[in-house]
């Protein structure tokens, strides 16, 4: 009877874990036999999940590494690394592109230098950099700590940040010397993801340690932890073991181009599931694994605790990871998707659980994460919904207006994307904030609101002068001035286009009231200024008409092309306003002479003057959108 009861207990446990996702407390002390049994049951459960994902999401393959309580619970591969050859996903040997783990590893390396006393994270990085210096565009300096939490204030840069072949990747110092974006915000004010900020962190590691970035991590992190296959060095021949990335075209999987980015420390990690497990185990164990310490306990805790947030109620960042609020114990994570891959690392320090998952095509990664972690941790409680009426509305600032994504570049032609990616925030009569399809109500005035349906927080953050930021759990939006708002800018485009259309036709129109008698020596003068002005207007009109199609291309299929550089056709297109600006100069000279020549009619002088004024007004408009010149 006792044997039958024991059999029934194990059968019930198996069924619950495999099919129901039995939440097992991982804080309890377990006997080795129970832990081994649970490991086998979790393996069976994830096997079932993986088989379903491969079929449902048309995934070629994936790898999973799950660790708990200081040891691997599962390290496994599913599907194939390459469809043509049929090579399976090997968790020990198959390298996967894992940008999600790149920034945490870069943070780990930088904190090693802090532990060694070679770097002060609160000191101006210019004190350590030799190959380039960050311009003092703001009184506050940029520090290493700010680089790790993305608060250095750098602009985004998406043009020419990728290459098609690994041999075209430049040394960090060479790339950043010409492509490091400027600072557009005071350091420490808001957190906006900066790929180039982490590139600068990698350069800082090189110049402080005296070793190339990839070599430093190999010697000081990968080898001590036994991560023997991991690398940031894409000059090596990785093709034989790097999983082929795929994209779904219709119902077929086709090889996708590699997502090769110049800011190597932010994204260019190739690793295995087994190697990822070792790093997670070290970080969850206060920086040590199998007797090898890569971080002090203090530094490890900085990577697993909040180090910056826009508001206490809004998820923030640790040094190298994002803070999440999906689970009841809290988590720190990094998720990335790109051409032919998706990857994620999730660490639950309170539960001593770590998960790494990577696929060789795009995948709904958070749904997969939730399914895997379900037996180990509960979902975070739903945020409390606000009261029926807003609280102390008189204390809330007025922040209605248009907002853009804070990470969209502002100092290159990519700023044009903000014309499309703007959303309007309005205030209801009762003081609620209306954003997209959501209503947010004040709960902790004057800076915190919550969604009346979901309870999700929205924090208001004050920037410089009249700038406001909307801090959500998923990202940051930045207010735009009335002049930069989409309605104003699109209206200006229409007005300029109409004026240029009229001006380009003026040379063919008659000028009533023109004097019949002209000095033969001056008879040619009434024509060339207006011809120059009309021709300039024609170039600008052509530019505006073509701009709409160019913008639609750049935001669609052209986005990937621009990541590799600016095509010749776009460069030619950007020459149109330069030619128009050049023709404006002789037209301006003609205006000045027109008012000096009494033989020129008032009607002629007025038309020419209005045309030149329109041409001159168009120049600052072009400059606002970085279209006067080649600003990439």
Verbal overview:
Helix 13 (486-505) packs antiparallel against helix 14 and helix 16 (568-594) runs antiparallel to helix 17. The chain contains 17 helices and 23 strands. 42% of the residues are buried. Strand 20 (448-451) and strand 21 (457-462) form a beta hairpin. Residues 1-32 and 511-525 have low confidence and may be disordered. The protein has helices spanning 2-20, 32-56, 99-115, 144-148, 172-179, 195-209, 213-225, 264-267, 273-284, 297-303, 365-373, 417-420, 486-505, 528-555, 558-563, 568-594, 602-624; strands at residues 61-68, 71-82, 87-88, 96-97, 162-163, 246-249, 252-255, 260-261, 270-271, 288-289, 292-293, 322-324, 331-338, 341-348, 353-359, 401-405, 422-427, 433-435, 438-444, 448-451, 457-462, 468-471, 476-479. It has 632 residues and is of the alpha+beta class.
Task: Offer a few descriptive terms.
single chain, 632 residues, alpha+beta, 17 helices
Question: What is the structure about, briefly put?
Answer:
The protein is α+β, with helices and mostly antiparallel strands. The protein has helices at residues 2-20, 32-56, 99-115, 144-148, 172-179, 195-209, 213-225, 264-267, 273-284, 297-303, 365-373, 417-420, 486-505, 528-555, 558-563, 568-594, 602-624; strands at residues 61-68, 71-82, 87-88, 96-97, 162-163, 246-249, 252-255, 260-261, 270-271, 288-289, 292-293, 322-324, 331-338, 341-348, 353-359, 401-405, 422-427, 433-435, 438-444, 448-451, 457-462, 468-471, 476-479. Strands 16-17-18-19-20-21-22-23 form an 8-stranded antiparallel barrel.
């Amino acid at each position: 009877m006792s044997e039958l009861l024991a059999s029934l207990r194990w059968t019930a446990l198996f069924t619950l874990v495999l099919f129901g996702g039995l939440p097992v407390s991982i804080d309890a002390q377990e006997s080795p036999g129970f832990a081994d049994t649970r490991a086998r049951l979790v393996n069976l459960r994830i096997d079932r999940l993986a088989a379903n994902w491969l079929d449902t999401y048309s995934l070629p393959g994936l790898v999973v590494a799950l660790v708990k309580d200081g040891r691997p619970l599962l390290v496994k591969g599913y599907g194939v690394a390459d469809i043509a050859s049929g090579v399976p996903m090997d968790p020990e040997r198959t390298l996967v592109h894992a940008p999600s783990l790149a920034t945490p590893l870069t943070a780990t390396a930088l904190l090693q230098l802090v532990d060694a006393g070679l770097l002060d994270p609160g000191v101006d990085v210019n004190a350590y950099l030799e190959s380039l210096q960050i311009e003092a565009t703001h009184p506050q300096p940029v520090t290493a700590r700010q680089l790790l939490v993305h608060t250095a204030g750098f602009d985004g840069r998406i043009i020419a940040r990728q290459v098609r072949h690994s041999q075209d990747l430049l040394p960090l110092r060479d790339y950043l010397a010409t492509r490091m974006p400027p600072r557009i915000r005071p350091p420490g004010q808001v957190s906006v993801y900066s790929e180039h900020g982490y590139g600068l962190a990698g350069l800082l590691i090189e110049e402080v340690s005296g070793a190339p970035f990839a070599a430093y991590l190999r010697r000081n992190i990968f080898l001590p932890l036994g991560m023997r296959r991991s690398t940031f060095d894409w000059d090596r021949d990785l093709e034989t073991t790097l999983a082929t990335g795929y994209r779904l075209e219709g119902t077929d999987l086709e090889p996708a181009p590699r997502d090769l980015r110049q800011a190597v420390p932010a994204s260019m990690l190739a690793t295995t599931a087994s190697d990822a497990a070792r790093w997670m185990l070290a970080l969850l164990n206060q920086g040590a694994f199998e007797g090898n310490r890569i971080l002090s306990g203090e530094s490890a805790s900085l990577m697993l605790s909040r180090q910056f947030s826009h508001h206490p109620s809004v998820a923030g960042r640790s040094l190298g990871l994002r803070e999440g609020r999906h689970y009841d114990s809290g988590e720190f994570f990094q998720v990335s998707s790109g051409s032919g891959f998706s990857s994620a690392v999730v660490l639950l320090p309170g539960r001593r659980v770590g998960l790494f998952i990577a696929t060789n095509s795009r995948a709904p990664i958070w749904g997969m994460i939730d399914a895997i972690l379900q037996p180990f941790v509960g979902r975070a409680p739903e945020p409390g919904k606000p009261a029926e009426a807003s609280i102390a509305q008189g204390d809330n600032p007025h922040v209605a207006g248009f907002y853009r994504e804070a990470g969209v570049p502002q100092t290159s032609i990519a700023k044009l994307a903000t014309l499309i990616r703007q959303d309007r925030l309005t205030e209801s009569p009762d003081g609620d904030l209306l954003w997209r399809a959501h209503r947010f109500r004040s709960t902790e005035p004057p800076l915190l609101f919550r969604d009346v349906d979901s309870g999700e927080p929205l924090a208001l953050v004050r920037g410089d002068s009249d700038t406001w930021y909307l801090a959500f759990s998923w990202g940051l939006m930045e207010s735009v001035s009335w002049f930069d708002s989409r309605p104003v800018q699109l209206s200006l485009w229409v007005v300029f286009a109409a004026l240029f259309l009229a001006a380009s036709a003026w040379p063919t129109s008659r000028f009533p009231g023109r004097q019949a008698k002209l000095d033969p020596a001056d008879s040619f003068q009434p024509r060339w200024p207006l011809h120059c002005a009309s021709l300039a207007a024609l170039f600008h009109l052509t530019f505006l008409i073509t701009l709409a199609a160019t913008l639609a291309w750049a935001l669609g299929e052209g986005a990937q092309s621009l990541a590799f550089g600016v095509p010749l056709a776009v460069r030619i297109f950007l020459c149109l306003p330069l030619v128009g600006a050049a023709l404006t100069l002789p037209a301006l000279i003609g205006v000045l002479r027109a008012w000096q020549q009494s033989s020129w009619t008032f009607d002629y002088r007025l038309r020419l003057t209005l045309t030149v004024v329109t041409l001159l007004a168009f120049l600052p408009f072009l400059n606002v959108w970085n279209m006067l010149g080649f600003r990439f």
